[in-house]
Amino acid sequence: MHSRNIYRNNPPDFESLAKAYPVLQQHFKASQDNTVGVYNFQNPQAIIDLTQSLLNHDFQLDVQLPIENLCPRLANRLNYILWIEDLLNETTGSGIARQGLDVGCGASCIYPLLACRHNPDWTFLATDINHQSLLVARENVSANALEDQIRIVEKSPKDSFFDFSETLDFTMCNPPFYASPEEITELESFKHDKPRSKLLAHPNELITEGGEIQFIRKMFEDSYTYVFCNSLEKRKNHQTWFTTMIGKQSTLHTLIPLLKSKYQLDNYVITTLVQGQHTRRWVLGWSFGYHRASDSISRISQTNSPLKSLNPPVTEILVNLSSTEGFQAKLESTLSNLVRYGLSWEKSGEHLNVTVHRVRVPNDIWSRSFRRAWAKRQDDSSKPESKRQKLNDGLGYYLFTITLVSVKDPQLRIRWNYGVDFKIYESFVGMIKRACT
């Protein structure tokens, strides 16, 4: 569970909650010692009443949850939102107004409601293909006076997921996981433990042709179209994080190779959402921009996870130092010598009494190939600009942060913040290592 999730170390107090919300009292199984008893999680209405009570008690949200619709698991949904907050704050800055999209908001409209309650400067588009669900979603938005932040939009199954004029900062989705009712039954039969509660939902919330794989493949295609195949040129330079929850681990083994092969994309992130001892879901995110998330946000860290082979490239590399003595002078001398080739750097605070350095470079300006091209350009200085040796491949720039993270066993952490090519990041690390060790 996310470290900021309010339920991580503070699970609901059922006894006090039942006193504040009497509707819960009918769902406790009687006990012989006059305590509150055991809550009946097998009853779908009991799950709805508990979720509504928690939303009101902990988030001051009044939410209708029809029994024929999927009842959101609150801790899990909150985990997803908190991870999105981390991803955005780290890659594009904190304290910024955000425009989000919830694909398939359902009747509850849970992601926009929770996210906007948690982040008053956020706005949301919330879509669904079920007209009846959207009627309830609109009532939920209105009941909580969030009409200025959340706009409900009805879609058809053939529509693009992202066919909006707005520039989106991020998207969220809890897709239909299954291809058929038979698949649901088959997967349930494989589980060792009996489900804690019965699964009730509208068919379009659980089932789609081709299951979640086909659904997210369409999301890949529509996200590419949204960024590159429209008249709004500014989107090509905007960092949109497209994300979706995933219900089956095997799906990641299909989708991530597709991102790499079809879209030549290595700027993606994966995380695990854990709720309780048994419920486990995953989130996959991707961006056609160049802001890079830290390893703790973007990569599966468990050493025995079968997903480790699917991790994106690392963005944090540690360099061992023999000593901290004189290393800062060596580092700054090395950086200063590259300024003439386009490098710029600044001091951005201190860590362990040592300056943190933020470095911007146009390319691998420390490499021999670049130096030869640069020398050639000086020889061609009398030629027209169009005839001169080009020094940049047009892929933008790179940002790195260099921080001393340990004094006793000295180590530098070199963080890749922005850029397209992992090989240039590796080469930069190698250059700094040779200069400082």
Tell me what the structure shows.
This is U6 small nuclear RNA (adenine-(43)-N(6))-methyltransferase. Pfam families: Methyltransf_10 (PF05971). Helix 8 (211-228) packs parallel to helix 9 (249-262). This protein has a 5-stranded antiparallel beta sheet, covered by helices on one side. The protein has helices at 14-20, 44-59, 74-92, 110-118, 131-143, 181-190, 203-206, 211-228, 249-262, 295-298, 327-337, 368-379, 422-436; strands at 28-29, 38-39, 98-103, 122-128, 150-154, 170-173, 242-246, 268-275, 279-286, 316-320, 344-351, 354-361, 398-406, 411-418. The chain is elongated, with a radius of gyration of 26 Å. The longest helix is centred in the first third of the chain and has 19 residues, at 74-92. It folds into 2 domains: 71-310, 3-Layer(aba) Sandwich (Rossmann fold); 316-436, 2-Layer Sandwich (TATA-Binding Protein). The chain is built from 13 helices and 14 strands.
